[in-house]
Amino acid sequence: MSKKNKIDLGSSPVGKTFWRYAIPSILAMTAQSAAGMINSIFIGRTVGPEGLTAITLLMPIVMFLIGLATMVAIGGTTRAGIELGKGNPVKSNNMFNVTLSSLAILGLLSTAIVNLLLTRIADLAGATGEARLYLLQYGRTLSPFILFFLLNFSFIFFLKLDGRPIIAVSIAVFGTILNILLGYILIVMLGMKVKGAALATGISQLIPFLMLSTAILIKSRWTIRRPVFRRKDIFNILFNGSSELLSNSAYSISGFLFNIIIMKRIGVTGVAAYAVSLQMAALANAIGYGFAESNQTGISYNYGAGKLVRVRSFLRYTLSASLAAGIIIFFITFFLGEKISLIFIKDPATLKLAGHILKFYAFAFLVSGWNISLGTYYTAIGDPRLSGLLTLYRALLSLMIGLLLFPTIFGDNGIWMALLFAEGTSLILGIIIHRWKPFGLDFKEIKEKGKIRKTA
């Protein structure tokens, strides 16, 4: 992107900036979701329910690793964006280097830990027979690529903060296309089953890592320097990104609970049907996070610069677009659920159950994007306490309450009703908190110090 066309987060029209970031962000998020979805189709139709079950049982671990990556990446870019808004480019660049170094360390540690604990994870998930063998094979093949997976999160966020979302998204979409092509070759043509799915995912992270590294070095303002680690900076990064880790950790725990309950009450067929539903949920969440995270840089920059009117405008655009997308996804999921399921699986019992589950998910999709946007908004303005409260309630507490109560009252349908309870009550909580503290818990203190200017 030329300097002439480069987005100025502090002065370009909010609507134009919103769509300039939102469209490529949604494309990137949905493309990544599509890659997982298509590989699940390959697995479901070539390996069967056991293959889908294995990948689904390992998903809580993947969610936790995504939480680590987003905690550091979003925490680092939020602080870097606020420093840029305050006119401190040197401090902002140091945040970039601290973030990369921290993620590199986390990536190497994660690979070692996953390999050490994989059999224990399979035991806790209740995986037996072929599902257990596939789970172990998938985890061991994928684990060496975790480092690139984590660093790519950070590179994409920092390219967006530099006003270059098109470059970031183009590389992400290329990685998705590569994942799909490799998935077809390795899973379908060469018959490598879940090992092929893991290799396709890993290689499609390695090559974009090389491309993103080059883009950072050549096309962006960011420069590689020896990071200066300060306790305060590390605390700020982890604190600001903690709600994202909390969110994904909560999803890991709740996902693990779902897997255990479904395995005990329904069995492999239930987990496979749930896996199909999760693919549609992943697509809906990708769109929700695409809208929410596309404005994270704009909101953090303008909050740091004290431009509250622009902060409000970014949030308003995000919420409106998320609600409109939720309505569209509802109609598609509710009326076409069983036909969507047929793409993934051939087993009649699994197919029927998946279509039934998607009816419940359809209603949850109506408001899930709104809930995602409010949680991400508080992270963007540097208030992980409120963001953490919203995400912890939505991702864990409400689901635990629902899973404890509804299956007892409504039988197996109560498992899926817990989702509706979680999204509905999270929406109410989010509206109450936003009306109470629209600019975070510390807003009054910051305003008194004269750091906030009410300028558009």
How would you concisely characterize the structure shown here?
It is built from 15 helices and no strands. By secondary structure, it is mainly alpha-helical.
Mean pLDDT, all residues: 83
Report the structural category: mainly alpha
Q: Give the N-to-C terminal Cα separation.
A: 25 Å
Helix content: over 70%
| Percent of residues in beta strands | under 5%
Radius of gyration: 21 Å
Poorly predicted runs of 5 or more residues: 445-456
Q: Biggest sheet, in brief?
A: none
Number of strands: 0
Q: What do you see in this structure?
A:
The protein is mostly helical and 456 residues long. It has one domain (14-448). The chain is 85% helix and 0% strand. The protein has 15 helices and no strands. It has helices spanning 14-46, 49-85, 89-125, 129-142, 146-161, 165-189, 193-219, 231-265, 268-294, 296-304, 308-344, 348-380, 384-410, 413-436, 443-448. The longest helix is centred in the N-terminal third of the chain and has 37 residues, at 49-85. The chain is globular. The model is unreliable at 445-456 (pLDDT under 50).
Key structural traits:
single chain; 456 residues; mainly alpha; disordered C terminus
List the helices and strands and how they pair.
Blueprint: H1 14-46, H2 49-85, H3 89-125, H4 129-142, H5 146-161, H6 165-189, H7 193-219, H8 231-265, H9 268-294, H10 296-304, H11 308-344, H12 348-380, H13 384-410, H14 413-436, H15 443-448
Helix pairs in contact: 1-6, 1-7, 1-9, 1-11, 2-3, 2-4, 2-5, 2-8, 2-9, 2-10, 3-4, 3-5, 3-8, 4-7, 5-6, 5-7, 6-7, 8-9, 8-12, 8-13, 9-11, 9-12, 10-11, 10-12, 11-12, 12-13, 12-14, 13-14
